[in-house]
Amino acid sequence: MLYEFLPGLGPRTGSDGPLADSSSKILLIPGFLAGDASLYALAMGLRGGGHRVFFAGIWINIDCPRETIGRLTRALESAFERDGRKVVVVGHSLGGIYARELAHRYPQLIERTILLGSAIREPLDNSNPFVRMWFMATRRRHQEGGTCLNHINSLCGAHRPEPVAEIAQTIVYSRNDAVVDWRSCIESGPNIEAIEVRTGHNSMPFSPEVLAIVAERARWAGVGNGRAH
Ligand SMILES: [Zn+2]
Questions:
Q1: Distance from the alpha carbon of residue 62 to the mean position of ligand 1, in angstroms
Q2: Residue 54's beta-bridge partner residues?
Q3: Ligand 1 center to residue 42 CA distance, Å?
Q4: Distance from Cα 181 to the centre of ligand 1, integer Å
Q5: 63: how many CB neighbours lie within 10 A of its CB?
Q6: What gap in Å lies between CA 170 and CA 149, rounded to an integer?
């Protein structure tokens, strides 16, 4: 289920050592139609900075969002329980919507969320036709009746419109996104920062500019995380 990213060794279930003072645990969540491998470059950079990077084992992100959020919840809990320190959750595209929803549900487990090109405001209305078609095509039947299409506004319960009040959230957006409307990526609140980058939607996880933003916040989290409790 949860695995630690270790370049050269491939996925495995990590063993634990104590973290360095400025290190964080980071859970990475891929976007629509993407898998964990789409975030390996970002993972490599973060791991090079001394952070521990985890994935939930998503090879292609096409399940009903309700099932995916369950899987991510188990991964988050597992990462947290390794040493009882809070986790930084980073999501690309749809993955950022999941990261934000995890913060709504489990604020006690999360230090900060970082959303990369995530259309959090009306996610389907503000995405390009390809994304919408994809969602229509991969609908699943829900236990209580209907399919994913009947729950489209909430992404099958994996998305709610209001911001997360208590958890710091970093929004990374681009006017050159070309997949989602950058305006739909932005929301405001006391714990929210929005940072503009120049890279396009799909290349965000490969961008040195984005890596620098994520790495800096991971360091902040590492310095503050787990010591006040
Ligand atoms: Zn569904």
A1: 10
A2: 4, 27
A3: 29
A4: 23
A5: 16
A6: 29
Hey, what are 130's tokens?
């390809």
Alpha helices in the chain (DSSP H): 40-48, 65-81, 94-105, 129-137, 208-224
Question: d(Cα 29, Cα 216) in Å, to the nearest integer?
Answer: 19
Give the span between the Cα atoms of 203 and 205, in whole angstroms: 6
Q: Ligand 1 mean position to 36 CA, how many Å? A: 21
Please write the tens of the pLDDT for every residue from 145-154: 778 777 777 8
CA dist 224 → 26, 113, 178 (Å) = 14, 15, 36
Predicted pLDDT at 177: 93
pLDDT digit string, tens, across residues 164-194: 999 999 999 999 998 888 999 999 999 999 9
User: Ligand 1 center to residue 171 CA distance, Å?
Assistant: 25
d(CA 98, ligand 1 centre) in Å: 14
Q: How far is CA 184 from CA 75, 152, 170, 216, 221, in A?
A: 28, 16, 14, 25, 26
Domains and CATH numbers, the chain: 3-7+21-224 (3.40.50.1820)
Longest dimension (CA), the chain: 49
Ligand 1: distance of its center to the CA of 146 in Å? 9
